[in-house]
TrEMBL record:
Pfam families for the chain: DS
Reactions listed under catalytic activity: [eIF5A protein]-L-lysine + spermidine = [eIF5A protein]-deoxyhypusine + propane-1,3-diamine
Organism expressing this protein natively: Lentinula lateritia
Keyword terms, alphabetized: Mitochondrion, NAD
Enzyme Commission number(s) of this protein: 2.5.1.46
Subcellular location per the Swiss-Prot or TrEMBL entry: Mitochondrion
EC top class, as a word: transferase
Primary role: Catalyzes the NAD-dependent oxidative cleavage of spermidine and the subsequent transfer of the butylamine moiety of spermidine to the epsilon-amino group of a specific lysine residue of the eIF-5A precursor protein to form the intermediate deoxyhypusine residue.
Protein name as it appears in the record: deoxyhypusine synthase
Length: 357
């Protein structure tokens, strides 16, 4: 009996020819000895989020290697940027953002590496992302379990962040450390008449902690600005609240900070975003990019979804519509837990130059 012709035509529809430029799907050959770098590069051809991760490696490499000298000298170029030396030293400004929980996690050490070696031009995070770094200098955060009982932990004075635990004593130590600094800052403010900003506050704390294990110690040493528009939404806010009764008058001005962040973006010859997680840290950087008509490179790593219309979940293309990423710019979103992906991304890019065999 003959195969029905309509059915065979439907199933065996011929394909259009595929050009030789197209890359076929292929996983790593684990029988061969692979360097860490070759292994991470092999993700590009695996497909799904592994391929987005491979694209993130490529985009981060482009942003970290870009120099103004790569571009032809424009006729109307600013006098400051005409010298070949200055052109070869002018880099892409990388704006790094991350949610608070990532400083609670071991990503803190990966972020520290980037700040210590001056790979980023500015940082944006939320309050927990500031205080947890200092608190870790005063006491440990421990590995635990997502399933620990909340009421039991509360009785025992333990605080849970996912599968991590922080003893409440750490926050008491933080208050003992922070309160005299707040007193000194208030005295200086009264003496000079100059109010503080969240960025200058974090810079001061980085100086005071004087500990090489702190991200913000290195930000202080390297004069990398750290912005935290909602600095009061965490333990720091509790301490500022208590302090406002004991010794009132401290002022933190967010206007000066938004001006500094936006000006940094506006004056960047090239600008890239690397943002881990969503919320304030993602949007504050993207919004600063609007001032320069969009970022040139963008890597987002987050678990947010877009069906609810959240900015946290929005893909880079939504930011293109707002002018926060330039049309045609290199951009990718990796849908993943940043704790899995970011150490690999940094190992495959910035850290490559530091690895000894
Ligand atoms: N350690 C803490 O988490 C902590 C401590 C004190 C205060 N807070 C405060 O809680 C508020 C909310 O925190 P937030 O804005 O930093 O972020 P968040 O925890 O609300 O996360 C925002 C979004 O980022 C994404 N995200 C979070 N973790 C991720 C991960 N590991 N990988 C990939 N994507 C991830 C998710 O889409 C999430 O909805 C802030 O004001 C912060 O200061 C947090």
């Amino acid at each position: 009996m003959a195969v029905p012709s309509g059915a065979s035509a439907a199933v065996l529809l011929p394909s259009e020819p595929i050009s030789n430029d197209h890359i076929s799907v292929k996983g790593p050959n684990l029988e061969k000895s692979l360097s860490l770098f070759d292994f991470l590069q092999s993700y590009t051809r695996i497909g799904f989020q592994a391929t987005s991760f491979g694209r993130a490696i490529d985009i981060v490499d482009r942003m970290r290697k870009w120099r103004l000298s790569d571009e032809p000298l424009a006729e109307d170029e600013d006098e400051k940027y005409r010298s070949p030396e200055i052109r070869s030293e002018t880099k892409c400004n990388i704006f790094l953002g991350y949610t608070s929980n990532l400083i609670s996690s071991g990503l803190r050490e990966v972020i520290l590496f980037l700040v210590k070696h001056k790979h980023v031009a500015a940082v944006v995070t939320t309050a927990g992302g500031i205080e947890e770094d200092f608190i870790k200098c005063l006491g440990n955060t421990y590995l635990a379990d997502f399933n620990l009982d909340g009421a039991d932990l509360r009785r025992r004075g333990m605080n849970r962040i996912g599968n991590l635990i922080i003893p409440n004593d750490n926050y008491c130590k933080f208050e003992d450390w922070l309160t005299p600094i707040l007193d000194a800052m208030l005295a200086e403010q009264k003496e000079t008449g100059e109010v503080w900003t969240p960025r200058r506050f974090i810079h001061r704390l980085g100086k005071e902690i004087n500990n090489e294990e702190s991200v913000y110690y290195w930000a202080y040493k390297n004069d990398i600005p750290v912005f935290c528009p909602a600095l009061t939404d965490g333990s720091i806010g509790d301490m500022i609240y208590f302090h406002s009764f004991k010794n009132p008058g401290l002022v933190l001005d967010i206007v000066q900070d938004i001006r500094e962040l936006n000006e940094k973006s506006r004056k960047s010859r090239k600008a890239g975003m690397i943002v881990l997680g969503g919320g304030v840290c993602k949007h504050q950087i993207a919004n600063a990019m609007l001032i320069r008509n969009g970022a040139d490179y963008s890597v987002f790593i987050n678990t947010g979804q877009e069906f609810d219309g959240s900015d946290s979940g929005a893909r880079p293309d939504e930011a293109v519509s707002w002018g926060k990423i330039r049309a045609g710019a290199e951009a990718v979103k990796v849908f993943a837990d940043a704790t899995l992906v970011f150490p690999m991304l940094v190992a495959a890019t910035f850290a490559k130059d530091y690895q000894t065999s």
